[in-house]
Write the structure tokens for this entry.
Amino acid sequence: MAITFNYSNAGLREHELEQVRPQLITAYKTLMDKSGAGNDFLGWLDLCDTYDKEEFARIKAAAKKIQQQSEVLVAIGIGGSYLGARAGLEFAKGPFYNQLPNKDGVEVYFAGNNISSDYVQYLLDIIGDRDFSVNVISKSGTTTEPAVAFRIFKQKLEEKYGVDGAKERIYATTDANKGALLNLAKEMGYERFVVPDETGGRFSVFTAVGLLPMAAGGMDIDAVMKGLADATKKYANDDVMHNDVALYAAIRYIMMTKGKSVEILSDYNPSLAMFGEWYKQLMAESEGKDHKGIFPTAAHFSTDLHSIGQFIQDGARLFFETVLWVAKANHEITLPDDEKNVDGLNFVSGKSLQFMNEKAMNGTLLAHVDGGVPNLIITLDELSDYTFGELCYFFWKALGISGYMLGVNPFDQPGVEAYKKNMFALLGKPGYEDAKADLEKRLESIR
Ligand code: PA5
């Protein structure tokens, strides 16, 4: 199987895991019995069996249609309606997937995850005169950022292809029963896909939310679902001391009780940079509640060893590190020999970059452990569609368990609403008049 977990560098004493075992068993059981807080949002737990097969076939057909009609897909969404698909495409196809020759799918760009006019213009410039399609993704159908972007790209499509032509190029992924986007999609006759009620945003990448952009971009979504199914089976062992997701959850909890309030997910492959963003949302939105939680961050090595590496090695001891290591590179490149050897690198001539990268990883691991940073290592066989399916499930389940150990509801996100309300009020949305006056008064004194 593709994932292994090693905690021998976590600096744990023998009794530590044993002592949290009762809490771990309770949390594991709470998750699997679906008896805890947020249990309406556990659709991801057995998604590999319960997913809508008819819709899955429609997703594949829509991806084909996009590939036949367009060179570019603009996927519009934010948070859970954005991060998974982008993480998946970069994970499986690399950071330059849009520019690669002979790719299996269309270029996929993401919009609606910010409100920057520069960003929108750059994206319009990239599309240029080329044919494009749009997948607008919003569970609520009312989130400002994607709604703003959709209005712009819908208008561009209608100018280019007419209202009827645009209709053939717009795909709406939203709630099955309610919301402004659903109403618009029905009225305009857009093809619709569903964000299931029982699957929260950060758990939705293997619903139409992520599957359609990933399939349009050329990912094999059957392989993704197989990875998900295999991980679901692999991590079903309720003997928690022999289940890696449970052990990872327990160790995260132990770290927190020892004052390690930050987890750094570090990788050694730029294909994982967006996976780090996906992980940050998953952990932060799930655990950062009731003034508790581990703050998740990501570091990309060896790049960041030349920036925040100094702090990790020698700064305040606030954190532990979880290394995401990929055992096999998808492409082997070896260092050529150089007769003059001016750079002094001939001692590694003929070695693969993967070999060198692994030495960098091992050297860093030892240095960080020596510097007092507990290290956990999650090793993946390789980066592929299949392992993306597996790895997302690994983190989901671990997070569900550690969230319950922490005593929060890991499946809601009440904090995300606070800024939305303030933004609506400041923009002058009807119904927010009183709040607008209050906020503007406060801003006067601080800006
Ligand atoms: O995880 C979440 O639930 C959030 O990040 C949402 O996905 C995000 O706020 C976007 O919401 P929506 O899909 O309703 O536009």
In short: The pocket of 5-phosphoarabinonic acid is lined by residues 78-81, 138-140, 143, 146, 200-202, 285, 413, 416 (CB under 6 Å).
